[in-house]
Amino acid sequence: MRSELIFQTPYWFLIFCVLAGVGYAWLLYQPQPSWGKKLNYLLAAARGIVVAIICFLLLSPLVRRTQTSVDKAKIVFAIDNSESVGKYGQAAMAQVNAAVRDLNDAGFEVGVETLEGTETNTDSLAFNQNKTNLAGLLQNVRSNFEGRNVTDVVLLSDGIVNQGVSPAYNRYPFRVNALAVGDSVPKLDIRVKDVVSNRIAYLGNEFPIRAEIAANGLQGKSTTVTLKQNGRVIQSQPVIIDRRDFFKAFDFKTTSEQKGVQHYTIELGAVSGETSGRNNRKDVYIDIIDGRQKILLMALAPHPDIKSIRSVIEANDNYELDINILSIANNPPASTKPYDLVILHQIPNVLGLGNAQVRKFLDAKMPLFFILGNQSAVPLASSLNRSLFINAAANNQVDKVTARFNPAFQQLNLDAESLKLLERLPPLSVPFGEYNISAGTETILYQKVGTLNTSKPLLVLNTNGDQKTAVLAGEGIWQWRQEEFAQTSKQEVVDNLFQKLIQLLSVKEDRRKFRVYPISNEFEAGEQVSFQTEIYNDIYEPIFGQEVKLELVDEKGKSKQFTYTHTKETPRFNVSGLGDGVYRYAASTTLKGNQERVSGQFVIRNADLELSNTTADFGMLRDLAGRSGGTFLVPASLQQFIQKLKTDRPADRLDSSEEMVELIYLKWLFFLIVLLLGAEWGLRKYHGGY
């Protein structure tokens, strides 16, 4: 620590501080005292020093403190403890542990990181991770030792990456020295490399499942690939291995008459000579749903906006869209069809087509999305939508406005920064007049006239009450999508806005007072399954203290029961030790004497990514070491590398920190002044002074 005094005023101002102290002491102690001269000089000196110090502090001097510390060179061992490294890694750990001890004795700081995080006990390190993300491992080293003097990282790995990106193309602030282990000679093996399928399918519909099969060194042999469901063979196809490096995709098609998550298995028959049969099967889970959400788009006449809205809706497979153009068909749909959302384009209108149907939709409490246009009956639309009221001009005058996002709107998770694009898109045609919104209605977009920001709403949403409504006060969104594509080569911002709005309007509101659900639909094998619990009273305030019974049933019908108490401190209940497969759960509790019950399902996947490829990739490790300035190593050369590090020891780093502090904030000065004044006052009183 080094301190330096800095003046903010000329140095010679100190003379005035000394003169002030001397003058004050001379005036105070000039009369003949009742005590001796020596004591008088001592008291005068104390008072003079205090006054001089106080005057000096009034000049606001600064103290610059400089603190220097030594940051020793740090070596980090990054251990790929995945299953594919296995016995090769365990054999090399004795040399790694010896290297760690050797470096510690030489004065280095040494750290050890694994795929799971920081490791302190490497003697019993298990190589059992079922996936390898080397880029993530090196990024964790960078994050955990950010700002530290890390000069070298020794990465023990076989170079196999099955998650994340290749680490060879990232830049690191340290040298990566690759310690290569494993077998780079391809093994005789056949495996299910990957399975490609849809995550969801619809009840009764045919859907595809593609199996990608790869083999090494088994040319001339054959087997079969089979699609199974719950042990039942659905279809089989022959696999003839006609070359050394074999790869082929096999397509299956199947249907399901059962709702919920269905478990399918792609399985290969054993081939003589293959190294392992563990990678001869893969599981795939497909959620079979009964029907889609039904949306009706009812329009007065053909319009480019209709095609744009159709494109937005049909991008989501969960929607089933009906389109009815009244001026062509003049046949409104039956109001009894249970639509989840009705989009009304220029309805109600001045021609009267479909106006009566709107009232039926309102009576049925269907969610409605009104889109106004030049044929809209604005007064009637204002009275029916109950959200946005427009007092339009008598001559049906229109205005050209662009859109401005309301950042205060929070119901949808929208990116305010990206929505600034809307201000650069073509204007919409809206009715000219006075705009007002009802209580409970939120504005999503405001109108912008030229460069003038107005408070007039352009797009509003009302989700209060028993019917959800939204109103877009203009037409021309087809131009928005075209212009966005012209500017960005994408159609994301506009589509995302309306997709989320349509999703919010069409989703059925969950009014249950008892809810239990897993925090995810899918978990990995070995991971805890967490159930979120929510219990409400009649006015939907959360309540706690209820006993909840939870039952889990696996695919074989085996059941497990759990009981827990729902508390504010622990709203989640965790279950561990579950194997892979589809699980169905049922939870129950008692509210006001009545039993409430919920049910659902979730999936536990056993990815077995490590089995998809067991051939070490030393080429990637060489590339990684070369790009970072490091060295490619094998276990036999590790000790030689450590000796080189000790001989050509990286320089320790000096870290300096500097701060400026006003002298008046130093506590010891305060206590010095108090001590001097206290001593002076005490001596004066003791000797009879005032």
UniProtKB/TrEMBL annotation:
Task: Write down what this protein is called.
Answer: VWA domain-containing protein
What is the native source organism of this protein?
A: Dyadobacter beijingensis
- InterPro entries attached to this UniProt entry: Class_I_gatase-like (IPR029062), vWFA_dom_sf (IPR036465)
The regions listed as transmembrane in this protein's record are 12-29, 41-63, 663-683
Q: Which domain of life is it from?
A: Bacteria
UniProt keyword terms in alphabetical order: Membrane, Transmembrane, Transmembrane helix
The cross-references to PANTHER family, in alphabetical order and at most eight, read: BLL2462 PROTEIN
